[in-house]
């Protein structure tokens, strides 16, 4: 290395060079990601406003106490509402502004759980009275489902809502310690009202199962809890995550609410205590489906933040072997590094696109539900369950892998990735613990299988039945005829290789799903220990694979994208399919799906997976020069990332140094602990040494 070389100055130069290497038009791809130029401009303007407002300053938050973070969170929420009025923001503008705040806030639960559940399930009478004040944030809400003793098993919740026909009221009661509502976001100190999930008890003790009830929790004048209610915060969470959110507990002691406060758009109770059945047994799941559909988008953007930081750092970090210029190589050029990061980038892009499509599908379902049409409910339930599992599991793993790729500096809080991990890790648990939720996905898959092939699995469906398959079970068409068989695969380079043909890869994913479900149907009486998880993941990845094919076709038709943009995006989405198959090779080998025409042709290897792995390696290598451009297209500002290692200009070492100087421990050269602890220990140790020397002389 040259003696006068400045490694810190080199980082900015490396970032400039990397941006020149990309072949994509960052502006075009960014508009594609944000669903159009107008949506991107709207977000950009809001970022400019919020990032310059001192209320949203992030420089001190790493040293705040939990109470200070909670208070700051509400201060930011209040400021968003002030700006909404001052600047004439639309509801969508305010939603974007709130989403930019990377601290999970109590208001998030109002927006993502309480409000949509209320709007979807409440009677017209209740909507007329409260919908306006909920929308204007005249009241703050939460969604009280999980209890101290029960989470995913909603049917076993213990909180009761007993109907009293004499007074036309429901009595909300927590009969046991384990019936305390627990983990409820915004319940601890913030929410004034809540939607409570409770067992509906009719006169005579008839239990009708869990239903939803609108309950006021706190006074709108003093914010004190109403009589008969005990509530508070459950305490700090692991990794100090969700610090600004007051996840809370609540216990109800015979709290009376008007009969009209049952969310009775579908299921109802008459004045004399008779039950009116809803049009669909699981229609009350609509709110939960909304939350799960939003989690797909969130997983995509959280993953995107982590991988943007990691790729930018890897682009300017030099370590190890030296190149012809005498400088150490940039770590992004090492296969062991880019093989970890580029598939994460691919998943971020796919999940963001998938989340947008899922939200659109949910809105269509809601429109139909409002007219009494429940035909899309079962499909949406199966789809959102599988995607919630897949996307949250992947996001947790990807954020941690992105952090680890940055070595020691990745462990610094200033990298910003540890904070992302702390907030994303509970997503595998809330709204359905993923391993438990696997069972719902499997049940939906088996139901589709048996409706197609009969209870014995030997029936032959008609062509019209096959054409009527939903998107989540479309893979089952492959089992409809004995003449159908998995494709033969061609190893080789470039377009000649089956591993570079996205339609072949999608077909392989569908064959795996079909055979896994068939295996489940045949061995349901004695399944192996991982079959539920493999069926759940396999069927969901087949669904996503088909959607990825549609995405590739869509942006190939997109007139706003240049040919080079399409080529790079196609390779990125192809990488998603390739690595999805690689991660499940045990299934593909178990079912004999890797049918290579010339199995020993690739360098005389006997490994049938080698062609796939070579295709992944070559695809990744071709994407390395595009990595910075693809991360820039995700549109994050430095304020949004709040990361010393993910700086747009690449000046990571200076940023890390500057941030370290703000550590409060550095305010004094000699810490307060010196007199209290350090000095006594040093003195004691020195005295012992002196005593030993004296004893030796004696």
Automatic annotation (TrEMBL):
<keyword id="KW-0576">Peroxisome</keyword>
<keyword id="KW-0274">FAD</keyword>
<dbReference type="InterPro" id="IPR009100">
    <property type="entry name" value="AcylCoA_DH/oxidase_NM_dom_sf"/>
</dbReference>
<protein>
    <recommendedName>
        <fullName>Acyl-coenzyme A oxidase</fullName>
    </recommendedName>
</protein>
<keyword id="KW-0560">Oxidoreductase</keyword>
<dbReference type="InterPro" id="IPR036250">
    <property type="entry name" value="AcylCo_DH-like_C"/>
</dbReference>
<dbReference type="InterPro" id="IPR012258">
    <property type="entry name" value="Acyl-CoA_oxidase"/>
</dbReference>
<feature type="domain" description="Acyl-CoA oxidase C-alpha1">
    <location>
        <begin position="285"/>
        <end position="445"/>
    </location>
</feature>
<feature type="domain" description="Acyl-coenzyme A oxidase N-terminal">
    <location>
        <begin position="30"/>
        <end position="127"/>
    </location>
</feature>
<dbReference type="InterPro" id="IPR046373">
    <property type="entry name" value="Acyl-CoA_Oxase/DH_mid-dom_sf"/>
</dbReference>
<dbReference type="InterPro" id="IPR029320">
    <property type="entry name" value="Acyl-CoA_ox_N"/>
</dbReference>
<dbReference type="Pfam" id="PF14749">
    <property type="entry name" value="Acyl-CoA_ox_N"/>
</dbReference>
<feature type="domain" description="Acyl-CoA oxidase C-terminal">
    <location>
        <begin position="502"/>
        <end position="682"/>
    </location>
</feature>
<dbReference type="InterPro" id="IPR002655">
    <property type="entry name" value="Acyl-CoA_oxidase_C"/>
</dbReference>
<dbReference type="Pfam" id="PF01756">
    <property type="entry name" value="ACOX"/>
</dbReference>
<comment type="similarity">
    <text>Belongs to the acyl-CoA oxidase family.</text>
</comment>
<keyword id="KW-0443">Lipid metabolism</keyword>
<keyword id="KW-0285">Flavoprotein</keyword>
<dbReference type="Pfam" id="PF22924">
    <property type="entry name" value="ACOX_C_alpha1"/>
</dbReference>
<keyword id="KW-0276">Fatty acid metabolism</keyword>
<dbReference type="InterPro" id="IPR037069">
    <property type="entry name" value="AcylCoA_DH/ox_N_sf"/>
</dbReference>
<dbReference type="InterPro" id="IPR055060">
    <property type="entry name" value="ACOX_C_alpha1"/>
</dbReference>
């Amino acid at each position: 290395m040259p003696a006068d070389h400045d490694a810190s100055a080199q980082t900015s130069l490396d970032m400039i060079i990397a941006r020149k290497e990309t072949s994509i038009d960052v502006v075009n791809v960014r508009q594609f990601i944000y669903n159009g130029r107008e949506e991107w401009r709207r977000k950009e303007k809001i970022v400019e406003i919020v990032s310059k407002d001192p209320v949203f300053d992030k420089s001190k938050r790493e040293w705040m106490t939990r109470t200070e973070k909670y208070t700051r969170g509400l201060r930011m929420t209040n400021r968003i509402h002030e700006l909404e009025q001052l600047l004439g923001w639309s509801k969508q503008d305010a939603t974007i502004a709130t989403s930019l705040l990377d601290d999970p806030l109590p208001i998030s639960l109002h927006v993502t759980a309480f409000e949509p559940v209320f709007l979807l399930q409440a009677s017209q009478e209740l909507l007329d009275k409260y919908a306006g004040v909920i929308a204007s944030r005249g009241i703050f809400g939460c969604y009280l489902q999980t209890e101290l003793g029960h989470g995913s098993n909603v049917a076993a919740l213990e909180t009761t809502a007993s109907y009293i026909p004499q007074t036309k009221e429901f009595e909300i009661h927590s009969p046991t310690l384990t019936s305390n509502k627990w983990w409820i976001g915004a319940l601890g100190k913030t929410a004034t009202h809540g939607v409570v999930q409770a067992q509906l008890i009719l006169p005579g003790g008839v239990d009708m199962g869990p239903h939803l009830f609108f309950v006021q929790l706190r006074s709108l004048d003093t914010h004190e809890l109403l009589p008969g209610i005990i509530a508070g915060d459950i305490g700090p969470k692991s990794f100090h995550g969700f610090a600004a959110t007051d996840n809370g507990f609540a216990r109800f002691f015979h709290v009376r609410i008007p009969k009209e406060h049952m969310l009775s758009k579908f299921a109802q109770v008459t004045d004399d205590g008779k039950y009116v059945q809803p049009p669909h047994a699981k229609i009350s799941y609509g709110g939960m489906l909304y939350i799960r559909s939003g989690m797909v988008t969130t997983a995509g953007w959280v993953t995107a933040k982590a991988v943007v930081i990691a790729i930018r750092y890897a682009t300017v970090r030099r370590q190890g072997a030296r190149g012809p210029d005498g400088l150490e190589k940039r770590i992004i050029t090492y296969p062991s590094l880019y093989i970890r990061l580029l598939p994460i980038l691919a998943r971020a892009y796919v999940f963001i696109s998938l989340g947008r499509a899922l939200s659109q599908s949910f809105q269509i379902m809601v429109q139909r539900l409002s007219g009494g049409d429940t035909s899309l409910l079962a499909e949406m339930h199966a789809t959102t369950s599988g995607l919630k599992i897949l996307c949250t599991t992947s996001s947790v793993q990807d954020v941690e892998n992105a952090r680890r790729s940055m070595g020691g500096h990745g462990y610094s809080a200033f990298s910003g990735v540890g904070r992302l991990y702390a907030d994303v890790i509970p997503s595998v648990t809330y709204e359905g613990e993923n391993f438990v939720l696997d069972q719902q996905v499997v049940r939906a898959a088996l139901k589709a299988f048996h409706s197609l092939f009969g209870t014995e699995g030997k029936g032959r469906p008609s062509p019209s039945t096959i054409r009527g398959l939903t998107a989540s079970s479309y893979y089952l068409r492959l089992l409809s005829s004995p003449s159908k068989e998995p494709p033969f695969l061609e190893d080789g380079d470039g377009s000649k290789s089956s591993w570079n043909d996205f339609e072949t890869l999608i077909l392989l994913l569908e064959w795996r799903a079909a055979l896994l479900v068939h295996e489940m149907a045949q061995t349901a009486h004695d399944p192996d220990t991982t079959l539920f998880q493999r069926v759940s993941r396999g069927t969901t990845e087949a669904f996503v694979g088909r959607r990825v094919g549609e995405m590739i076709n869509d942006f190939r038709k997109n007139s706003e994208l240049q040919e080079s943009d399409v080529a790079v995006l196609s390779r990125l989405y192809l990488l998603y399919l390739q690595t999805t198959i690689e991660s499940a090779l045990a299934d593909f080998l178990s079912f004999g799906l890797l049918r290579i025409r010339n199995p020993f042709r690739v360098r005389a290897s006997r490994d049938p997976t080698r062609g796939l792995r070579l295709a992944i390696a070559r695809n990744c290598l071709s994407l390395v020069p595009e990595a910075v451009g693809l991360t820039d297209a995700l549109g994050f500002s430095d304020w949004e990332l709040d990361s010393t290692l993910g700086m747009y200009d690449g000046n990571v070492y200076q940023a890390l140094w500057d941030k370290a100087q703000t550590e409060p421990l550095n305010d004094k050269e000699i810490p307060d602990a010196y007199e209290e602890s350090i000095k006594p220990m040093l003195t004691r140790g020195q005295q012992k040494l002196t005593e030993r020397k004296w004893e030796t002389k004696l």
